[in-house]
## 1
Amino acid sequence: MAAPPATLGGASSLTASFLASWSSEKLVLALVVIFIGFLSIVPIGRLLVEAFFIGGVPSLNAFGEVFAQPATWRALRHTLETSIGGTLVAVVIGTLMALLVALTNVRGKLLLVFCLMLPMMIPPQVMALSWIGLTEPGGFFMRSTGIGTLFDTNPLYSVGGIILVLGVQSAPVVFLTLRAGLRAMPADLVEAAQASSAGRARVIRDVVLPLMTPALLSGASLAFIAAVGNFGIPALLGMPVRYNTLPVLIYRKLSGFGPTVLGEVAVLSVLLAVIAVVFIGLQAKLLSRRDFRATGTSATLLPYDLGRWRFPAECFGWLLIVVTLILPLSALLVNSLTPAYGIELTPGNLTLNHYRYVLFIDSVTRSAFTNSFFLAAGAATVLVLLAIVFGFFLVWRPHWLLRTLNSLADLPYALPGTVVSIACILVFIQPIPFTQISIYNTIWIIFAAYLVRFMTRAIRPIVNAYHAIDRALDEAGAMCGASLLERMRTIVLPLIAPTAFAAAMIVFLAAFNELTISILLWSAGTETVGVMVFNLKQAGDVLEASAMSCLTILLTVTLMAALSAFGRHLPSGVIPWRA
Amino acid sequence: MARVTLESVNKHFGTSVAVEDFTLDIPHGSFLAVLGPSGCGKSTVLRLVAGFERVSSGQVLIDGNVVSGPSLHVPAEKRHVGIVFQSYALWPHMTVEGNVGYPLRVAKVRGEAYRSRVAAALDMVGLSGFDTRRPSELSGGQRQRVALARCLVMEPSLVLLDEPLANLDVHLRASMEDEFRAFHAKTGATMIYVTHDQAEAMALAERIAVMDKGRLVQVADPHTLYSEPATTMVAGFIGKGALADAEVLAPAEDGRCRARLFGMDVMLRCQANQPAGKARVCLRPEDVALASEGVPATVRRATYKGGVTEIEAVPESAPDVTLLLIISAAPMVGTAVKVRIDGGWVIPAP
């Protein structure tokens, strides 16, 4: 019954078909490699050239000029003090909550964790606006509690205010890394300490926390790098009192003087990048000094029974959520429903006018929603498709070039967003080579910057998903005679689809809520939602800004909840807040 | 039918050598087992023939056509080679019918022809009526049968099997072995079966290629492999027995030679060109027996095997050698016995 070996015909037909199939595979690969290579190398490289070369000659003169200005030194100091302060706040909140959730038997952990994670997904400018609404002396909360009379001006417009809100925003990152560490901690190490008759507090102090040093350090450094690159919070809270961090200084220079100061802001953004890189290096050095490798069976740690302390512990956890999340967001909601600034909200005068205005009446805010939606959906689609092809080759056809690109793709996300923006301006202010087309001052430069920035957020989960798939599934398809494209369509895509979908949602959320990049790249007509919220606030239209913010929060929470519900079908680590 | 030829094939990954100077001709319709310890390169040989890996040097030919060479590589999807994977490699998002029918859909076989060929393949592996099940609803044995049916439906002239029984329960293996034998008989396809289990290889294959550290050590039928191992590695890897040092006293005559072993003069089997001198000898349980005269030895262990007893005896003159004997009535452990040497194979000098 053996069939005639039709496909094993003459050697010449074999050669021909081999050339056809292999070259299409190579063509796809080459395109993806060039694209990812361009996105991950060219902008950052161009920025370095701008900062370290003058007229093609290596020179540090640009740095000399920038450091001669006192404003540079002030912004540097401000960046460091707010970032370090914010990180400390984040570490305290994140650690307490991680210990509470991972090591004790408090109830309602699912909801608690969801609320804890929210600040991570809410955009910084919205977070800052919420807090401003809460602490405004003439606002609803300060007035109704009577605290408002203690202040002449909003106390949040200060170093302390920036540190507080940065800390709240970064706490989820610390919480997540620490909880992941606690989950992976071998239970027998704790049991050995208990067997040595150490009490709970001693076990936590002598065993748990020391073992958690790597998790804590990496959580803290993630929080620090996010704080260094944060624009929304220091801009909204610091600019009214002329307190500029580096990203804010770059924004002020660029919006005040335009592309003429590009050289100067390039140096400033390299400075910003250096802070991030130095800190990552410092963390690696600290970790290499001691051996943190835990040995033993990594059974899940049984939660401590808190006994009669459980209720107070739960109260503490929820109190923290109320103060850091629910109160500020309520203030935002109240503002968005108040008829006019300075008027007290009552059930009678509650209005949806601001929502109607931003969604249907004002053409600028309306187009901001369309712009952000287009940018986010476009970036998500392009990046996920790119990642699916890239992951296929990286995991199943390993090659040093692919591995190098894989590491390089992380760079634009590890560096502050401002750095990516400036790099993209430098690349795209000139027309695209061999054409007369310039995408500077169009929406496409924001799109390009989003591709650069969020590339790794699509690549990472999809590459991990490939690692979890048996390579033989693709090989079995090849054995059946299916070409690469056919296997992609019928085998690879269905297997990778759940992760790809989640990755697309994550990129969409991140891009839709983005401000740091678009604030430097927008022009009339290409405003994003983030830019609009910022501009409305700066123009004093706080109520419209609040309405827009509430809409973005609604979208964010809806998508997060949908993803969480979908999460059971996903490998762990795909959804950031479930890590 | 297909004939597979590997000519001086080398394969290295970076600096590590997986397959070295591998030359082997596998005739039409034969059933070859590639046997070796884990990490010996046997799976790499299979992947080279399948087209999943490229050769570093040398070439692979199928029916006289070069499919892998230094400058040419026919990809797996153009080779029309059936493969049964260790992990079964069934697609979880397709039904049994979807998995088995995939090669036909790729080849654009539709309608009645498609349905009847899928049904025939499922019938052959005894899974009729399982069409709409998902792989996750099947047992390990059933999954392997689906994988076999997927292979069958392709009507390949060459089938590669990569440790197909490694993930199955012991009691399922015998029935799957029957399945493979039936597959071979029905299709007449050339089969290459990679395994680390010598019993499996012996039971299934007409010829066995033993590999060690990336090299082909010996290719022979199971009987020759057992009775005339080419190296000490093969002697130790295939079957049971003991290895001992001997002195060949005179060159071979008619495939036998006189040798001094454990201080006694004995006749051993050997290669026709075996010279005199020092040599290693492989003694299978059939080559030794308890007797009134022979090599003085001590019984060190006795294991009852049901009907017979396997005993280990250590000769007084060679305390590092453990002779294995199978007898019906075993002496007590610690007893002094005499062991008669009836035969033995002189392992050729490397």
## 2
Amino acid sequence: MKTYLPSGLPKPVPQPDGLDAPYWEGTRRGELRVQRCRACRAWQWGPEWICHACLSFDLAWEAIDGRGTIYSWERVWHPVHPALEDAGPYLVVLVELPHAGGIRMIGNLLGDPHQTVTIGAPVDAVFESHEDHALVQWRLT
Amino acid sequence: MSRTLRGRVAVAGIGETAYYKHGQSPDAEFTLALKAILRACEDAGIPPREVDGFASYSNDRSDPSRLAAALGIRELRFANMQWGGGGGGGAAAVGNAAAAVATGLADCVVVFRALAQGQFARFGLGGQVPAVSGEQAFTFPYGMISPGQRYAMRAMRFLHDHEIGREPLRAIALASYRHAQSNPRAVMHGRPLTPEMYDASRWIVEPFRLYDCCLENDGAAALVLVPAERARDLRQPRVYLLGVAQGSEHRNAAPVHNAPLYATSSFTTVAPHLYEMAGVTPGDVDVVQSYENFTGGVLMSLVEHGLFRADEAVEVCTLENLLAPKGRLPLNTSGGNLAECYMHGLELQLEAVRQLRGASPNQVPDAEVSMVCAGPMVTPVSSLIFGTEATL
């Protein structure tokens, strides 16, 4: 399977306490799920056991549209991991999801790694399959 | 008595080992810690056995009880570790020690930091594990692993928000290297950095080039703190703690880069507390040591400490202004983490003290108020202000 970065990077696994298991189960099915408080309807990302807005423990996992805008970005040249020796440069973006309370997610920006990146540009989520998990990547809309 | 540390604690002594390139210390990390502590005691004229407390940060591996046993300390009364924040704990560790001294928990507390990265792992490499979970699971698989990669994202947004180019980052890097050329302790002493070398240096992670990133080094540094009343008996010129503050903004650590105020070095709430305790304003500050993990964070720290506004950055944060002795805002006058030694920022505290003793290799004339900002973009961060007797 074709992936943006070479294989060999650390594999993401759900937290042993189960906090983020619904996210990882969702991405394997091509579904982007994040936390939303049942009590006050606040969105929350990354996952936590309590709602930061109203302190309720009653948090739901809600499927959302994978669309957002680029909030910040970086182009990585220096490999800090052996798997990245010949991978650079590559692009990492911080994507804001205005329709989900403005939560933000980290991913790679697919396409030419030398491209000019514009903060505010709209992007769509792309599910990148790996052996036993999926990563959420982003491409310009 | 009002709740303040202002003027209640003095820096009796400072000391450091030789500074080495990472992995090149001939001494074990614990030996480095011992040597720095002994030198600080010698500088203070205080017998090491009179030390009764230790404070450090970033999970320093030299355990206070082991230090106390090794040094034959008569009685251990204070053992303190500042949680989290890596180098952001530097000023906080001094503050924690000072709080112990000011409140009578202890009489003579050493603040120290020791690193031997040959013996232990480097910070700049990461992710050498088969699997990650929690926060790391949401960043490492995307190749966002090292501190530089984590903080470039914040700095990029700051530069964007304020329409600042990379000139201030370049000036910060050049100033540190220039200052290191007159500091024989500096790892980069005799290795000047020209603007051409900076511009030609490789990208590490945009917006940071090679020289925007701190070194990694081996060594140790220490300060000895005592009650202010004891300062009159000290061998060294008197240097007092005027103010100290630590922390970060509302939900600064919201997971996976979700801090509501994202483009921050984490000082926006800390700096006002600092100035309030110190009883000074940004305009009173004569010289600044600002922790460089990456130059972008230094720029943000200076702005958040009110030394200039973001929209003044290109005009004010120039090499000429950052250089001692004549610059408007002398910065990192020993060479700091970029060019003296990455002693996890504790070398900055020592330099801030030297400036008030008149003993810096790049002395700012008549310096009375000396500031240290520790840690940008991490949480918690911390900063402090030292002053001479005249500032009390």
## 3
Amino acid sequence: MRNTAPMFGRFRYGYVAPAVLLVAGLLYAPFVWTAYLSLTRYDGLEPPAFVGLANFAKLFQDEALLTSTRNTLIWVIGTMVLPVGLGLLVAVLSYDIKGGAWYRVPFMLPYALSGAGLAMVWSPILSHDGIANLLLGVDTAFLQDAPANTFAMLAVWTWQQLGVNTLLFVVGLQSIPKEPIEAARLDGAAGWRLFRHVIWPLMRPLTAVVVGLALVAGLKTFDIVWVLTQGGPGRNSETLAVTMYKETFVASDYGYGSAVAVMLTVVTGLASYLYLKRQVTAT
Amino acid sequence: MIRRAVLVVLGLVWLGPTYLLLVNASRPASSYDPGSAWIPSGDFALFDNFAQALEGADLSQSLASTALYSVVSPLLGVVIGALAGYVIVVLRLRGGFWWFLLIFGGTVFPSQMLLVPLFVGYSDAGLYDSRLGLILVYTAINVPLAAFVLRNFYSGVAFSIFEAARMDGASTWRIFWRIYLPISFTALTAVFILEFTFIWNDLIFGLTLSQTEEVRPVMTAIAGLMTDVYAGTPVPVGLAAGLVVSLPTVVLFLATQRLFARGLSLGSVQ
């Protein structure tokens, strides 16, 4: 093939150029710029003034940031446990019974709602004079007090996400080899024991992927919080992504907002790395 | 038996909010009362409510813009990504793997790291609050995945196809458009659907880079319906809006399910 190379020589770079230019210009360059801005004081009007690590020092003294770190942690653990765990439960209960697909319909319906539409739908249910309070005969401010408001939103998220996780697990369960399960059944294993010692080990790789995706999604939680509470009341339901947005575009503190973005990126990278490493060493 | 019982109980809990959503989104806007929200109204006003959302919040312009973004950007994205995959795999670009790594590396940046420079840069370049600006950024975000899937796909295509076409005197450009792009149709479609869904549901870029009703994408507009003028939006109207804006992604996904599954598995074949 080498001898034909000169025939379509230099212009080859023209084929890769659009992709490289777009990615470099709109992804890499902003990334580097944000990293630089995190070391500056910048309000978008005056040119950025270099302040070293001052923004990062402020991160550690900022009480709002402590709150949003706590909330983000709740989101991360919550999304790794609830939608994934319940999804696995529903999948295991329904994958090999007659009409199993029908039992799964209620869990699939909420997945049709997307993004802001989801929050739109839950707002009148959770609001103070909302449906949930009246139906349950209670007077709870679901979206008011922290950290209860984060848990309420987590419940909404679980309601929406369960279906897709169930679907992934059902596909996984249906594609695991039948022989080990049959053999274990013949040996008298059933129910929990069958699941724990036969099915679960076979499902581990898939579960690792689903949990990993939930980990990253949980760290970046933004949409649902933004639409349901905007991080409030006050700042008590903010996640790191919401704090970043508010510091930057509400408080016009671009430097500090960038520092929060950098922190979020470092935490996401580190968490993904540690998680992947653990998965690799565990298998 | 216990299994079915658990499934039914859990299923009923899950159906509750779905039921409330459907009943109240179909209720005439004026007759909403949280106390009797679980009783169907007997009327079917879903479309009236949605029409009201279209007018009141000017969702129609946002819908049109979002439709534009979620079709044009993925189209550009898959073609640009396919071109990169083609030149790297088929034309054997020197250092091709590094070029690929550079492009694919674009997936690792969280959107929070992009917002400030995009906002400032767009303001300076006159791209802030413009459709072109949003199309550009959405396209850039789509390119890495497209390049990834298409590079994999083209690795599995016999090189003799290319050689034969060269023998017949076709230019590399022509071979791409006439042969390589068409044979990767299913893979392209799978990527297109994923990216369509991503853009349709995007909130944060719309929030950061647009302002006026003509440019603002629909999820951002919906969020505004809640956060800016929530007091003024009747609940049934809001519910109908949330329901209807979610439909396009569902319809697209259901309509292309088979193709989607096939395209992704093709994409992963080495």
## 4
Amino acid sequence: MIKEALTTMSDLWSLMVGLRVTKTYFLDPQVTVRYPWKAVSNIGSFKGHLELVSAKTPGKAKCISCGMCALACPSNCLTVVKRKAPKPTPEEEQALAEAKAKGEKPKDKTPKDPEKFLYDYTLCSLCGTCMENCPVGALSFTGSAYLAGYSRNDFHFDLVQVLKNQAGLEGVDQSAAPEAGQSEA
Amino acid sequence: MSAIPAELLHIIIGLVAVAASVGLIGLVMVWVERKVAGHIQRRPGPFEVGPSGVLQPLCDALKLVGKQLFMPTGADPILFWLAPVLAFLPVLLLFLPLPVGDGLQALDVNLGLLLILAFSGLAVLSVLLAGWASNNKYGLLGAARAVAQSVAYEIPLLLSVLAVAFVAGSLDLAQVVKGQGTWPWNWNIMTQPLAFLIYFVSALGETNRAPFDLPEAESELTAGFHTEYSGMGFGLFFLAEYANMVVVCSVATALFLGGWQGPVLPGPVWFVLKVSALMLLMVFARWTYPRVRFDQLLVINWKWLLPLAVANLLLTAFFVKLTQLS
């Protein structure tokens, strides 16, 4: 009986404690920001869609077209199209034949960066497996939080084209959505 | 002009003032509730329309007025449209006997308390009609809950009010206020703290406010009794809820917190301040406590509030008789 009364009293007191907690939160500063006018300070840490890391020459990807990313991708959203070897000029053909005659292995002059790097953002789950499997660190996430589009095709990118456009528009807002959406559907 | 009796003029002015203030209170309370809720959850609340969003409820009201009124098939048309009107009209009457200041009363009757208690019972009827006429299972469940809850919570409410009426020796709210003094230790809450507690908890139950908002429990019954109401049908229920809150808080102020009595400031200011404080407490309670289960709700009432209220009443009666004898 006495014990029950004591529990009741402590239970009632817990109601007061609850009100005090509410009061504390009421007086605490707000944690939300008025978004369209003011963004959160750490918006740069946003994990957006993939992009190719630029090599030393701007507009040229660091990528070596090995295809490990496409192989590792669990959602099959990457397609790497390798460059075809350029048609050798007559002199080169001659040099090639000479080298073959000498028994040397001819050096492949084909540039390693991909011709196309097709990325379907509608399938991507942003898991980062492609980045982990890339031997040269040629992929990264963008901080772009404002990507939006009107159709599915707006999210099919050719990342090589995106990179080229970015190099051309250096200094322009990075967060702008890449407009090089290549429709392939 | 002399043809109009002064008393009629008094009542008409009072009614207009009450009608205007009910509308204003509704708008202000919607804003206050949303703003306080926002700050408690550490977000700003409405801030877009007008300074700090004060005009937001006005926009909402305009939106509600402009909306089409729907009635579900199979609903009882008369009862369905009668219910919101019935919810709102008695509220105007409840405001009449409230003593805002010394002599500042729309209707000076010596049974003001009785009038309020009697007509506040109509709120249950409107909720029942709304739920029943909607032809909706959630509406019906909400209505059933409302009846069980309001009937139960009316009893301790009445008993706690009765205890104060014993002490004051009057059912006239103005008389009860006059019986109390200027300072907080002269107020009835000092002699009747338990009655105040019971009154406040029962008032939460009577006005269907959280944590006792079971008739409209949105997570269980979508919106309970007003699920099927659109536009101003819903608007009237909404307005009536806030107006009812003001009435119970005003009665609590008059009975327990000395009404318009207070130092320095004029009477009506004190009255409004005390009522606002109680309203704020109600809003805080809503955002602090989780909704109780229905059996818990009835246990609180029948096992705790009712016996306590009866004991309090008996003790009060005993001491009142004792002081009369001596």
